[in-house]
Design goal:
8 helices; GroES-like_sf; seven-stranded mixed beta sheet; six-stranded parallel beta sheet; alpha/beta; Zinc-binding dehydrogenase; Zn-ADH-like_protein; 15 strands
Length: about 325
């Protein structure tokens, strides 16, 4: 089969080449990939550290080519969204069946491919905050793929959503269309505390979000794009300063082994239009270098999607 393989002798660090077909374990299905979306972490860090000729990729949408031998997971011919440590940047991938979500027939593969990391991370992070109805929730890094899903999901849960972005003038209208009630530059601009926060930036943004939590509030540390330390000032965790019982927590998506139902639910919401995938770049997988550069330069506000498997030209 063909795949995008790591090759440091070419400018993009990736090229299309021939690799062996996947050899699935009994609890894995083989998926014919039709679209994959790129994530900043895999393009920036995983690609740099991967061995020569590795096949990377976390997110993929496609069709079940071969059902799992142990009988778990969907049957052959089912449209699916998939998540895994690697293998999405190929014509076929083997995936654990508990990391497969089913999708409605006829759903757009490009839109579905944005679900696995971005939407599922947003959903699981919001679950950490507890009930959202009537609560003020801050989303930092709201213009990225995960941030845009987090804004929409928080609003669906009944939250008063405050979206933080580096350029509210440029992105405020779009974030309000997705469900944000307020758009700010950062937590320091808030005129009132928030009951919870999803931080997708890290560094000082995480510290600021914690400082603006109401009593009993939680900030979920998800992203680290700032590439900076989180340094809390002396006294930040004192319990006698008017607001106490606040917490910082985190989680690792691929450490969650029961993601199939979440993936299926999210895929359906995207397919029926309840959630918007916010695709900022879409093209054939031969253009992976262009897509990766746009993602790493922070020119994209949303997801980059590669269409997989077109014949070589």
């Amino acid at each position: 089969m063909r795949a995008l393989i790591v090759d440091r002798s070419v400018p993009a660090g990736l090229r299309i080449g021939e690799v062996p077909d996947p050899d699935p374990a009994p609890h894995q299905a083989v998926i014919r990939v039709t679209a994959t979306s790129l994530n900043h972490g895999e393009v920036q860090y995983v690609r740099e550290d991967a061995p020569q000729d590795a096949v990377l990729g976390w997110d993929a949408a496609g069709i079940v080519e071969q059902a799992a031998a142990d009988g778990s997971g969907p049957p052959a011919g089912t449209p699916v969204v998939t998540l895994g440590w690697s293998g999405a940047w190929a014509e076929f991938r083997a995936v654990d069946t508990d990391l497969i979500g089913t999708a409605p027939a006829g759903a757009e593969p490009a839109a579905l491919s944005t679900v696995p990391v971005a939407a599922t991370t947003a959903l699981r992070a919001l679950h950490r905050l507890g009930p959202l109805l009537g609560r003020r929730v801050l989303i930092t890094g709201a213009t990225g793929g995960t941030g845009r899903y987090a804004v929409q999901l928080a609003r669906l849960g009944g939250a008063h959503v405050v979206a933080a972005t580096g350029d509210p003038a440029a992105h405020g209208a779009g974030l309000r269309e997705l469900g944000a009630a307020e758009v700010v530059t950062g937590a320091r601009d808030l005129d009132a505390p928030v009951h919870g926060a999803i931080d997708l930036v890290g560094g000082s943004r995480l510290v600021d979000a914690y400082q603006r939590l109401a009593e009993g509030g939680t900030v979920v540390a998800v992203g680290h794009s700032a590439g900076a330390d989180e340094t809390f000032p002396y006294g930040a965790f004192f319990g006698d300063q008017g607001r106490h019982d606040r917490s910082v927590t985190s989680f690792f998506l691929l450490g969650c082994r029961d993601l199939g139902p979440d993936l299926s639910w999210l895929a359906r919401q995207v397919a029926i239009g309840t959630l918007r995938p916010s695709i900022a770049w879409q093209g054939d997988w031969h253009r992976v270098g262009e897509a990766a550069e746009a993602l790493l330069s922070r020119r994209l506000h949303g997801k980059a999607v590669l269409e997989v498997g077109r014949p070589l030209v």
